Amino acid sequence: MSTEDSVHRETEKDLLKPPGFLGLRIDRQKLIKGFFTTCAMVTIVTLVLIMWSLVSEGPLRVGKAFGFLPYPTLKGGFLDTYRHELSVYRKAGLEFADYIQKPVTEHEELLSRLKRALNAELNTVSKISRDRRDAALLVKTHVEEKAALQREALEEALEKKEPPTAPEKIAELRKSVTEATHIAVASEVISDVFNRDEKEKLIAELNSLQPDQEDLPPFMQTLMAESAAKDAEAKKQFAALVTSVEEFEVAIDPVLELHNSMKELVLVTKDKAVQQHMAEDARAQLLEAAATAKTPEQKAAFEKDAAETETAEVDFKAAIEPVLAKLPDFEKLLPPYLEAVKKAAASLPENHGTREARDLVGHFNRDFPRHVKTVEATVPRMQEWRWDKPVPMTQALTSFLFGGDWITNSSWQDFYGVLPLLTGSLVIALTALVIALPFSVGAAIYVNQFATLREQELVKPLIEFIQAIPSVVLGFIGISVLGDLIKSTSDIPWLSWIPGFPVQERLNMFNAGVLLALMAIPTMFSLAEDAINNVPRAFSEASEALGATKLQTVFRVIVPASVSGILAAMLLGLGRIIGETMVVLLVAGNRIAIPDFSDGIGTVFQPAHTLTGIIAQELGEVSRGSSHWQALFMVGILLFIISLFINWASRLVVKKFQLPKI
């Protein structure tokens, strides 16, 4: 081989060799590949660490084998801690007492409906006079508050006996009170429930108010008398309903007295069990410290403290006997109670003057038979109850997943049932999805297929700008604007046919759903518009060549061809909605209860709490490592699983409905 050929080959190798990086003999392509590989690995590691932090603070605890080797264990995790709490709840007798609590709670709910119905009826007669009385008393209170400093000074002077305040000083103080009162009255806006003459009379009486004035001014006394007379007239007019409500209310009193005495007994036993458990934990910590002590003296001190720690066992069997002895007394109370409430329910009037009263009494009549069945089933359940029945780990899990109560910091018993939170999250998410889907997909179709270039340049940035609005600002809008708008709109008489109207609470699931829909529209719009844009142009050209109109082409060719992307946009928008925190925390109402689905579509106008909201609201207020802390991390795991499922479902939908490659 000639020298010229060798030089030629070396030149070719140099040309084919990848360029170096910053003058170093490093393959630039391998460096870039390594960078992106590292980014992917960091993402995976971060995801694993997030999952591990959730799991280690929730269902699991990290133990150490041989004193140094970490390993996951259920002991000390949420399920183990909650199982122990449920076990104490059963052995101490709280579970037994709660069999009575359920009919008591149902009675309170039914009584609340009857009282609200009664108030609605009474208001038809006495509301105007009561509003006039309350308006006058409210103005009087405001005036006295604004002149509080001068009034207090005069009161102190009048009360001073040795030496007594000089008359000139008292006169001067009275003058200052009068001046402050006149200024306060002038700044007040008198309600329009009074006519012109009444306003002048009220203002004159307010201007003459003095701290040592014992009786109300004459006009206010007249208003009080009118209100009392109207109240008496209203109660006389609706005497049948008043009597029924009073009979229903007092029927539960003997049961409450027995239940309270039972609760006192079981709480004493529970306190002893809690103290024993705390002592056992302290003893275990001392023994662990002794095992890792550096000197024999420290070890001996820890072992001595552990030995002195009292861990006496609680005699649950002896403690539960006086509680069980009250069961025969409870059995004797049930027949009179059922007779009284049935009599009260049967004597309820059939006709009512207001729609609110009709609805509330209708709900009462619908739920009352269920209450009777609950009361009748209580004694058999209490007879079958056993204090020593073990609580398995699966019961702790099912109590968390399907429990209907989330009660924390209770003097009775803490419960961590996630079902009310999950139900609230799902109802709000579905409400938002129903609102956002037609707007986002419709806007995507219009912008991509029908809008001019100028319209596209205007509409797309406006929709995408919604993402820039902070969620806390939207929450404030929901509180101050949207909530009041929903409430005032629902009070319009000719809209009363809408389920859920009139709305009782302005902060509710519908309010949160509307705002979350507004937040989800930009995401769903962008993804849906991309899906429509990715449909091959050949499809629309073929449709137009066959004589189809623009509308036929869009809705029979392009939209069906992009359905996978639209469904994926819907699911990803749902994921955005489920994970939102601030809006639902501010405007959903934060009532921890499973919604009453008997209202149908009107259910969305009820307040609720959510998975994300409960974490944001309570995590900063609980002690680290407590069962409450662990329960919140379990909620986080549930949210994580829901998000993963939504993302998996979106990928599955895209894969199933995607167009074949041409």
Explain this structure.
The protein is mainly α. It has 25 helices and four strands.
Summarize the structure.
The protein has 662 residues and is mainly alpha-helical.
Tally of discrete structural domains: 4
Give the rounded overall mean pLDDT: 89
The level of helicity is over 70%
Shape: globular
Beta-strand content bin: under 5%
Total strands: 4
Task: Give the CATH topology of the largest domain.
Answer: MetI-like fold
Topology diagram in text:
Layout: H1 3-16, H2 28-57, E1 61-65, E2 69-73, H3 78-91, H4 94-146, H5 148-159, H6 167-187, H7 196-207, H8 218-237, H9 239-250, H10 253-291, H11 296-308, H12 316-324, H13 327-346, H14 355-384, H15 393-402, E3 406-407, E4 415-416, H16 419-450, H17 453-465, H18 471-490, H19 509-533, H20 537-545, H21 550-561, H22 563-579, H23 582-587, H24 611-618, H25 627-657
Antiparallel strand pairs: 1-2, 3-4
Features:
25 helices, 4 domains, 73% helix, single chain, globular
